[in-house]
Amino acid sequence: MLKHFRIPGRLALKLTELGVSVPDVLRRAGLPRDLFDQVRILVSTGELFALWRAIESVSADPLIGFKLGVETKTERFHPMAIAALSTQNYVAAVEHMARYKKLTAPEEITHTLEGEEFRVGFRWLLSVDDEPQVLTDYCFSWMVTIARHGTGTRLNPIRAEYVHGRANLRAAERSLGCPVLGGAARNLIVFRASDATAPFVTRNAELLDLLAPQFEEQLRQYKEEDSFIELVRSAIQDRLTGQRPSVDSISHVLHMSSRTLQRKLQDSGSSFQRVLDEARHQMARYYLSNSALELNEAAYLLGFEDPNSFGRAFRNWEGMAPRDWRETHRSWKAN
């Protein structure tokens, strides 16, 4: 299973169009300032959730997730979405997206056609915490966008189900065009089976046949690239024992030159410093949530010179001090 999400470049464009500062979002999320300048924008599940929490915070618009999920310009669609629209109906489109989604990211698109309903949901396979509600809003809105483009109508879902209750309920219902319910077992958006099986006006079998081989090749490349990044991250974490592993030491362990290691990371859309930060971030979350380690002990094990350096790095990652994060996480678990 892959460990990273690929963020669509159009997200930065949409944020700017909606008046949301991309630099502020990246700073609040603790992500690299040049994230959207990278060839392949890859983030972990924790980074993805941090990005969406930052979007919600910086925007201060309770409907920002819904707005980001609406796209009227087909030229901005990812080729995978265009391929989905080239299938015969909405059920087939969701099946197509689900196949490629679970092979390119640690996420599953679930779908069930039963009786008069077609239910669509999302599973974040490597999540520690619940996904941000704003991300669920975005996913639901995007699924409605695909359904409306495919059918060529203002198709509305039957309902949207959220695990947690939400504020701005009526505004959310207007955004999705359906009732919104809280207290559900899972986050789901539900369509009429008759709508989901209605023929797509965008169906294009020739285009789908043309794009399919490219997707299969991309899937192969994604798995290879992500596997290499994971290999480097694991090597770093194995050596995070009171010291900061260097690019030379890791390249030696992986039996390659430091230049080759850095080139392969760059080709995968990453860098040694970024993978090192990701490795430290993951281990920091583990130490703070699953052990009784003191903060200075955690700082030492992660290779920081002192607790203050660890504190500054952790604030960049999570937007709060390590001690505050630990207390917040413990309260979540208690509830």
TrEMBL record:
The organism that produces this protein has a lineage beginning with:
Bacteria, Pseudomonadati, Acidobacteriota, Terriglobia, Terriglobales
Instruction: Provide the alphabetized UniProt keywords.
Output: DNA-binding, Transcription, Transcription regulation
Question: Gene3D superfamilies of this UniProt entry?
Answer: Homeodomain-like (1.10.10.60)
**InterPro entries, alphabetically?**
AraC-type_N, Homeodomain-like_sf, HTH_AraC
What SMART domains does the annotation carry?
HTH_ARAC
Name of the protein in its database record: AraC family transcriptional regulator
* Top-level taxonomic group: Bacteria
Domain HTH araC/xylS-type: where? 230-328
User: A single GO molecular function, which one?
Assistant: transcription cis-regulatory region binding
- Annotated Gene Ontology cellular component terms: cytosol
Pfam assignment, any one? HTH_18
